[in-house]
Design goal:
By secondary structure, the chain is of the alpha/beta class. It is built from 22 helices and 16 strands. Bound molecules: pyridoxal-5'-phosphate. Pyridoxal-5'-phosphate binds next to helix 12.
Amino acid sequence: MLYNSTRDKNVKLKASEAILKGLSDDGGLFVPESFPALKSSLKELSELDYKDIAYEIMSLFLDDLTGDELRECIDNAYGDNFDTPDIAPISYADGSYYLELYHGPTIAFKDMALQILPHLMTASAKKNGVSKDIVILTATSGDTGKAAMAGFADVPHTKIMVFFPHGGVSDVQRLQMVTQKGGNVSAVSVDGNFDDCQTGVKQIFNDASFKAELEAGGYQFSSANSINIGRLIPQIVYYVHAYCNLLKNEKISDGDKVSICVPTGNFGNILAAYIAKRIGLPVDRLICASNVNNVLTDFFNTGTYDRKRDFHLTMSPSMDILISSNLERLIYLISGCDDKATASFMSELSSEGSYTITESMKAGLDDFIAGYASEAETASEIKRIYEDTGYVIDTHTAVASFVANRLRSEGKLSDAPVIIASTASPYKFARSIVNAIKGSSNTGRSDLEMIDDLKTLTDLPEPEAVKEIRHAAVRHDGHIAIDEMKDTVRAFLK
Ligand SMILES: *Cc1c(COP(=O)(O)O)cnc(C)c1O
């Protein structure tokens, strides 16, 4: 299996090389040159546990790792660090199946991939004779930073430093990062906003002399961001696992179609569901749900991607995105793998702020249906489901739930059961959840007090991740100016 760049088909890398590289030199994303077929039937897979299904799926895509290497990565990633042996359990509520992807150490779905990425990276480094230690630098607006720190913590031959905007993340998010254990991790707050942090990291990555200095010191940079195929491929697994779960529990029959609804930001999670369909999962519709930053809703409805619009801060912050990087992969695939066309759409996006796909490409969007939820609709969905069923969903999941229910009531979905990707524990966004249910705005109360309020509303146990931050010691208290980022990295690696 080789991977092409979406902007240059002549680029052909093995999986391990693509994982180490992250992004192609031409700016394109890596895409498998063909989609393999599942080797076992879904019926057979439904007898397997999460790890064994992960092995079946990932070995199709990451075929230059040996069976033993891949097994070791999977064993390291999906164990006691999740609070349920099922890894990705399903809850049925209000006529839909909620696929809970938040049972990992940071209680959000990014764990599903970031718990395994560090192991895939070190296995890939070994495979390619890379003897340097891998250094991950990440700018974060809150969630990804913690998930990446938790994934890389104490993984040999790696180091990770996370930069977050000072005063720009929630109390819980900050505490989660600054208390992270591990001898190879660090989190630093920067006097600036998220964009400043992001720009600072990019400048460090592009600084040739600094790179050379680090290489001489035995280090090389890599990136853990969501365009890495080492994050995308592990996300296919839970969709297959979910289908198998429903099959095994006789909620569906073999071959029955399901629809999958995903609260979408960077388009990584839903793209994984699309790939699951391409390798044989019986998926009817992929429902792309957005908040009021609804650039994707418009794209699926019109074929025009237009980022020239106001940016809104919402209660589902991980979806507050106007450029969904992973969409480039879908554009490439529906263009018939036309690298020139993809490159030209992407250059239009950066120069003009928009592009329109061709009529023939639009046919490729039929696998999808899209919709969005306003802030009021998101809050009302949380309240309605809580009051009708007692089940509590987080704000991102509520966006998806609202969109799925609205499309269903408008007759736009078939009768296929709907699986809703539930991407964060309600405890991660306790303030918004409690406010939605109680219809109040508890501005005077701290994040931890809001968590206490949520605990009294529900029988959902408080996750370990929350218990930990109540008492854990602060390990990372760095607070720097924007222009000190490079020196801070240098000092960290000394
Ligand atoms: C990252 C994230 C999303 C968006 O996922 P994408 O793969 O970026 O589309 C949705 N919900 C939560 C809680 C997230 O952390």
